[in-house]
From TrEMBL:
Protein name per its UniProtKB record: Dihydrofolate reductase family protein
Database matches in Pfam families: RibD_C
Top-level division of the source organism's lineage: Bacteria
Domain Bacterial bifunctional deaminase-reductase C-terminal: 4-175
Matches recorded under InterPro entries: DHFR-like_dom_sf (IPR024072), RibDG_C (IPR002734), Riboflavin_Biosynth_HTPR (IPR050765)
Length: 185
């Protein structure tokens, strides 16, 4: 049985994008962190995306073709390409990656079915808020970066109260920390 995991890079003050919508600070030049993130995705069968997150991640559909990219980038691209992707959008008409479908809203039954065979990630704070509200999230695993941005898009939505259990943590030389919390039911 798989888990539904919500994991994104976040600032120390809890934002996935700053007040201008920028998240460039969330992509550190840290190959150790990049390798680790790729390892985490090996057990993922499906990625659940909102439109904006999908438009960011679709880069990985062809990233392995870029010249002079480190091998870690190509490996991450292959891992991403091997998983199913469901883009939740009311406006997106088509997708430009293989193994990708569009859903107009989050379907709890479809999410539960996907977790029967493998882990599923929910990526993007808006979609994660809907999954949290529906009680679908099993694990919250922020990658906290050593930056404070002062406002913007929050990693966790207002109004959510959960009891969590620390499952693990990993520190990186760049100052990033990956935290894993299980949601207590």
């Amino acid at each position: 049985m798989g888990r539904l995991i919500y994991s994104m890079m976040t600032s120390l003050d809890g934002y996935t994008a700053d007040a201008d919508g920028d998240f460039g600070w969330g992509m550190p030049e840290d190959l150790e962190l990049h390798r680790y993130a790729e390892e985490l995705l090996h057990g993922v069968g499906t990625y659940l995306y909102g439109r904006r997150m999908y438009e960011t991640m679709v880069f990985w559909e062809t990233a392995h073709e870029l010249p002079d990219e480190p091998p870690e980038m190509a490996e991450f691209a292959r891992t991403w390409q091997a998983a199913d992707k469901v883009v939740h959008s009311r406006t997106l008409e088509s997708v430009s990656s293989a193994r990708t479908t569009i859903a107009r809203e989050l379907d709890p039954d479809a999410v539960r079915a996907a977790t029967e065979t493998a882990d599923v990630t929910v990526d993007g704070p808006g979609l994660a808020a809907a999954a949290l509200a529906a009680g679908l999230v099993d694990e919250i695993a922020p990658i906290v970066l050593p930056v404070v941005v002062g406002g913007g898009t929050r990693f966790l939505p207002d109004g959510v109260r959960l009891d969590l259990e620390l499952l693990g943590e990993r520190h990186f030389a760049s100052g990033a920390v990956h935290l894993r919390y299980g949601v207590r039911r």
